[in-house]
Amino acid sequence: MSAMSGECVIVALAGRRYAVERNWGRLPAGIAPAMVSQVAVDGEDRVHVFRRGIPPVAVFTSDGSFAFGYGEGRIGDSHGIYIDHNDRVFLADRDSHEVVVCTTHGTELMRLGERCVPRWELPFSHPTDAAVAADGDIYVSDGYGNARIHRFASDGRYLGGWGRVGILPGEFMTPHAVWVDRQDRVLVADRENDRIQLFNRDGGFIAEWRGLSRPMDIYEDPELGVIYVSDMIPSLTAFAPDGTRLGRCRPSLNGAHGIFGDSAGNIFLTEIQPSCVTRMRRL
Known about the structure:
By secondary structure, the chain is an all-beta fold.
């Protein structure tokens, strides 16, 4: 038996230690398990798991108890989820070519893109993820058809974008995840180019971080300013804001497709195959 399958696993990362708890979160009878894609945590430390099933979003309290679900009938292909500082939830519906924005209880606020209308170099063609800057501007990685980052005002007005298919700085193969950090930089997981690219808010190239294998998602710890990147080695890498590698560990079996943290310093991972939510409980 592998240690990951049942025994206690402890990992260390960026000066912290974590207990790895696989298959975290308890679904009630009547809700079938489903493939999980990504995860986000709201202002009340509830964990929102974006699933390819019904309901598309399953919400758990901090102890792993199921609280409620939402999104049924509105999501065709669950991919990326992000919750901003105003508790707005951004759901990237990949193959429906849109991003649904809602409250943490599922009340719809607006939509970005046009459902089932793909557009070349415009929003969207199979978008993957969203992130929000401190001033409210929204960034969307548009990722499996287009190879672009799109920028919107907080009210959904389109402000333009950048990127094209390629391997040079400012180009992408699959922009799989996006994050705006505390330094107001836009970080993009350029998955098939095995790198994180960093840009200013207008799309100007700043730097790239390598030493990754198909990076999947990005999360910045608001307390430490440490930037975590999951990849398909499988590993979870911690970077300082200047790109210095602070550590690496193996908390997942197959590479975390999604990553987010809570106010207690715990880190949540979503794994696709075999599909589960893993909590890295801070010790």
